[in-house]
Amino acid sequence: MFIDDSSPDGTARRIQDLVEKDPGVQLLKRKTKEGLGQAYREAFRKVHELGRWDRVFMMDADLSHQPVHLKAIDRALDNHAFVVGSRYLRGVSVLNWSIIRLNLSYSANRYIRLLTRMPFSDCTSGFRGFHSDLIPLLLSSDIKSSGYAFLVETLYDVWKCGTDIAEVHIVFVERKSGDSKVSMKVFIESLFTPLRLRIKSLFGRHSGQ
CATH number for the domain including 81? Predict the structure, then answer.
């Protein structure tokens, strides 16, 4: 299932061509761009409504998340409910990033772990797999993030509910074309979300408890 938020580069048209040739391919077209979080939540609802799959995998479609790692994530799901493809499980496994971007990503994960107490090496990875029976939890959780912080908040909520979570090693390869669409709003949200989650854990009951 490809999710397209009215991309101007013709993505939806290319995927629609695939849909017509292969019934296993689906396209979820969204009229407005409301952020990564809303796109994923709509996809989760669609997958839950169809009820055809036991396992769900999340990944970027620009091949920075390499399909070769799907097998390792799938194998890990034999013994765990939720699996994160980690860029930092064995040192640093990122190709073609500048040293500045790499330091920002690595430091962001240390910052997130410090505030949230999550034990995972890569809290911001979007390459994930989980059993479909977790979808109701993901949809019912009081997740407020709409940008990339959605990935952090989702992982936090699943972890706080006692879900069995594992990490597997992946190699992340920077996309060959296209630009990152991280806005200042998304950056600020990513900065304050771990702090908000920490405050929630100290002064309020968690939504899954």
Answer: 3.90.550.10
pLDDT at 179 over 70: no
The CA-based angle 124-126-127, given to 5 degrees, is: 125
Domain that holds residue 119: 53-203
Tokens 């989650």 sit on residue: 197
Torsion angles phi and psi, residue 202, rounded to 5: -85, -35
User: Would you state the structure tokens that stand for residue 39, as one six-digit string?
Assistant: 């796109």
| In-domain check, residue 34 | no
164 located within any domain: yes
Confidence of residue 209 (pLDDT cuts 50, 70, 90): very low
Task: Return the closest-CA partner of residue 199 out of 120, 116, 112.
Answer: 116
Contacts with 10 (C-beta within 8 Å, 6 or more apart), sequence order: none
Distance CA 28, CA 85 (A): 24
Q: Flag whether 190 is in a domain.
A: yes
How many structural domains is the chain composed of? 1
DSSP-based three-state secondary structure for 29 = strand
Three-class DSSP labels, 143-206 = CCCCCCHHHHHHHHHHHHCCCCEEEEECCEECCCCCCCCCCHHHHHHHHHHHHHHHHHHHHCCC
